[in-house]
Amino acid sequence: MSRIQNTFKRLAGQQQKALIPFITAGDPQPDFTVPLMHEMVKAGASIIELGVPFSDPMADGPVIQAADERALEHHVSLQDVISMVAEFRQKDNQTPVVLMGYLNPIEIMGYAEFARSCAENGVDAVLIVDMPPEEAGDFTAMMREHAIDIIYLISPTTDEARIRKISAVATGYLYYVSLKGVTGSNALDVVSVAQKLQQIRAITDLPVGVGFGIKDGATAQAVSRVADAVVVGSALVKQVEKYQHDQTLMNEKLAATLQQMRDMMDA
Amino acid sequence: MSTVNTETVKDYFEFPDERGHFGRFGGLFVAETLMGPLQELREAYEKYGGDEDFLREYDEDLKHYVGRPSPVYFSERLSAEIGGAQIWLKREDLNHTGAHKVNNTIGQALLAKRMGKKRIIAETGAGQHGVATATVAARLGLECVVYMGAEDIVRQSANVYRMKLLGARVVSVTSGSKTLKDALNEAMRDWVTNIDDTFYIIGTVAGPHPYPAMVRDFQTIIGREAREQMIEATGRLPDALVACVGGGSNAIGLFHEFLNDRDIEIHGVEGGGDGIETGRHAAPLCAGTSGVLHGNRTYLMTDTDGQIIETHCISAGLDYPGVGPEHAWLKDTGRARYSSVTDQQALDAFHKLTRIEGIIPALESSHAVAYAMQLAAQKSPEEIILVNLSGRGDKDIHTVAELEGIEL
């Protein structure tokens, strides 16, 4: 059983939902990332999504764009991000790590090399924003060979036929984008999210995480009542930006935010 | 005389496939939220692309609003001075708004209207596509927002003012390299947020399917007219075609009609900037790598980490790190050949055409003229080269003056 399956199984046994923080790897500087990952696990993170910085993050709002730019000032590469996961694994062999990013860095590295490197360094899954299942042919096969999950997005504009198509190839969990827009947008509507999740659950048994628009304990709690997992990104990355010059404070603030979400989700 | 390796492609008109692939290029690489809207666009385009009323309205607009057909013109003095092949120009510079861009914006805006979209967005580099979009939006009474890199806003202030006069809101994009690619990113972000009422008019043959095919189809009027006009004027087809390639819409507009005429040489000319060897250029077909950006797989300017590299070119319209996937495919099949000319060579051609023919070409088109002059010198006076003069140079006179230390 994979780390991701184990995690959802363990949480189900504890009547808990998964909390999945997202940070951009190498933001604000490369050596901050692994310690921050450990802090987030202590504060209640169930799975970590690690953003791979890209020069042209088309689906991201200003907060995560700026995070990518900070990381790229240090030339943080896909290989560097995978090495961070390897370093994280030295102390944590349980918490799943998902790489989230755009296709071009993976194309340039080569699918086979990427799959092998993920497997060797403890990466559990990848979420490639700009690669729908229709274009994933060879890539899917190569990741499967190394037992790396491919997480897919489902959005409010995804119709039932596409939910079926996506569910047929997705493994690990599904990520429901709660609203039309880029990362960091506001206006989460829990009622419409619940309706869409009902539609998704009628089609697949995969756990469903919800992201976009989750910014505090209250929104995390509301979403955790209807979803299997709560994904939080921009709210954390904003704090990384704010406290980028003080690593200790940054770790404390992010941990506090996550801990509050964890507590309210478990309440 | 053709030395190209095209035996594997039977009919160039059969591409792309139904999912937008030109061989290994093209496709549909976008976030899930855009998959639905792109399918809606595909269906609308399939429906209206063959609809008689739609095509009649498009043709009428091209005739009475744009001023088509644009003429072909024999550059007799330029050809004589070079002493080689005859250089003919397809005069897209004479179109309303000054370039070929309007052929496409009219088509997409008519489509937007039929789809019931009230709001138009666009990205622009040099500002020509932005102006062409703002123009049709004004005419159709649609709200218009144009995304433009902060750097380009400074470089092309006259076009910014033109767009504002036309009623468009110009949004300065300050992320990334603050140029065309970042404007495209920002327009995509707007679209994904406002998909219910917004139509995104992409200005070139790039982006996710169906844009490369749709923009091409709206631009093929250039080649269709040119075929008839050249037969009428010279009694035969040209021996070679030349066009500049940034994203590649004017080039594909001329080339596509002739792809199955295998004896006709096809030459695309990229922005060589300071020279390919310096790394400071905008020539992904000449010196790039296959990758994925802005919704399609194509040749890109990318570093070994897969990050997109900043491009350098005197002409803002060629200053783009990718290229339309059909060009990437035409390169790989050998049907078209891609070269580059430097900023200096383009400037020299700009002056030459202006002084010898009384035609001020856009800096983009000057790249095509520069290459055509080199090509003509290697050919005999019986041979005919047709160059797409994609735009006029009025927008560039400040750039040229500044480079030459002249204050206007």
What features would you describe in this structure?
The complex is a heterodimer of chains A (267) and B (408). By secondary structure, chain A is of the alpha/beta class. Chain A has one domain: TIM Barrel. Chain A is 49% helix and 14% strand. Chain A has twelve helices and nine strands. Chain A has helices spanning 3-13, 33-42, 62-73, 78-89, 103-109, 111-121, 137-145, 160-169, 190-201, 217-224, 234-242, 247-266; strands spanning 18-24, 48-51, 97-101, 125-128, 149-150, 152-154, 174-177, 208-211, 229-232. A nine-stranded parallel β-sheet of chain A has the order 5-4-3-2-1-9-8-7-6. In chain A, helix 2 (33-42) packs across helix 4 (78-89), helix 5 (103-109) packs across helix 6 and helix 6 (111-121) packs parallel to helix 7. The longest helix of chain A is centred in the last third of the chain and has 20 residues, at 247-266. Chain B folds into two domains: 22-63 and 101-215, Rossmann fold, CATH 3.40.50; 68-98 and 219-403, Rossmann fold (3-Layer(aba) Sandwich). The termini of chain B are far apart. Helix content of chain B is 43%, strand content 19%. In chain B, helix 2 packs across helix 4 (101-114), helix 9 packs across helix 11 (249-255) and helix 14 (343-357) crosses helix 15 (363-377). Chain B is built from 16 helices and 15 strands. Chain B is α/β, with parallel strands linked by helices. Chains A and B meet through helix 3, helix 5 and strand 6 of A and strand 2, helix 1, helix 8, strand 12 and strand 13 of B.
Distance between the termini of chain B: 48 Å
Largest interface: A-B, 45 and 39 residues
C-alpha-based Rg of chain B, rounded: 20 Å
Number of domains of chain A: 1
Provide the residue-averaged pLDDT of chain B: 95
CATH fold naming of the largest domain in chain B: Rossmann fold
